[in-house]
Amino acid sequence: MSNTHKNQLSVEKIGGTSMSDYPAVRDNIILYPESPYQRIFVVSAYGGITNDLLEHKKTDQPGVYGLFANDDVEDDWRIALDQLSLKLNKINADLFDDDELRAKANAFIDERFAETKQLLNHLQDLCRHGHFSLESHLLTVRELLASLGEAHSAWNLAHLLQQEGVNARFVDLTGWQADKTLPLDEMIKAHLGDVDFTRVLPIVTGYAHCQENLMHTFDRGYSEMTFSRIAVLCEATEAVIHKEYHLSSADPKLVGEENVVPIGKTNYDIADQLANLGMEAVHPKAAQGLRQAQIPLRIKNTFDPGHHGTIFTEDYVSEFPQVEIIAGMQHLIALEVFDQEMMGQQGHYEKILIDTSNRLKCQVITKDFNANTITLYLSASLKKVKRLSEQLQQALPTATINTSKVALASAMGSDMRIKGLLAKAVQTLFDEGINVEAIHQNTRQVEMQFFVNETDFEKAVKALHSKLIEVHNHGKAICEH
């Protein structure tokens, strides 16, 4: 399948917070600047709905899936599912003025909720028998529940746009009641292969049911993988993600709205560095597909449609060496393994550390080592790190293992080969009374990482942003002092 018309074709993803504001989506995205055609939209569930279906992304508070999987109180998941069904009907009531269309919208999502409830009831009954394990079905349950959010938002958006005179088509990749499961690429071709993009606007579910089981590999990043593959298969000239904010030089909540600047242009290398810190502009695997197909990615602010946003390309390097972003992570744990017997065996020790961390799902942000010490910088709960320490101590009985709470402040740029920049950054932190506990910079020079006490995180980000970004005019070289 390809862009047979060879016109400008953009594949665009709309995030959940943006989806919750239909007038902004209609006026600032779909009908902006002119024609809605030669575009494909992949949509997320409305803001917060996937949290309610699965679990809260930040707090881990269980949603319907979490309650079903734990099954602590048998009726909890049913109550949560019923409450969520009412919540989606309330969203429909706010969106549809037309009584007939609102009734259709409710009927569509109510049917899916009713069937889902029935399926989960049957599965729960089945797994009370010893021959069937609930654990082996949980990924399917997770995918089934996740699909409800995007089916709801995509159906609604397509029908709302039809009311506005747009020839929108609801494209359901959720595999609902499908006879067989196809590979992702085949699924996309089957649903989009015959669409004339010059006259039809596809509104596609972010969740796609396929043989690859996207949630198994990408979990909550599944919609970006769907978006990326559609862009590649349709030979898009551009991929666009619409968010509720600009991708800026720092978090405006930390350094002040008046001090940040939209990044404008950078490369996929920086997208990877951001993803490593949990600040995904796009999922790394989704970015990989776009990069290999040489499709530029644009991040746009839904609520500032006139701004060109930030463009990621494969080969962009800033005209002058400069720092583009100050980012970081506040709650990290440094796990230090010291052993006099490590000398000459660092590879063996490192494999044990990394394999054990991965098994316990402790995310390794970065690591360093010398002759007899390896330190992992982890994003994980204290409980998980305690288990990790115990298992490492059993595997490495002669080692001494220590943990400490740290934060990471990171300076990034597509080209930071500036003489004295590292010294300037360290001096900036010293002037603020911040002790640097570890530093990382490799020869690629697209990122400098400073590990500090977690209580100094906000102060470190503000100071680095003030001295490395705010002091110069973007597009001009940083003056060397």
TrEMBL record:
It is an enzyme of class 2 (transferase). Keywords: ATP-binding, Kinase, Nucleotide-binding, Transferase. Residues 11-301 form the Aspartate/glutamate/uridylate kinase domain. CDD domains: ACT_AK-Ectoine_1. Residues 413-467 form the Aspartokinase ACT domain. GO terms for cellular component: cytosol. GO terms for biological process: homoserine biosynthetic process; lysine biosynthetic process via diaminopimelate. Belongs to the aspartokinase family. This is aspartate kinase. It comes from Hydrogenovibrio thermophilus. The lineage of its organism: Bacteria, Pseudomonadati, Pseudomonadota, Gammaproteobacteria, Thiotrichales.
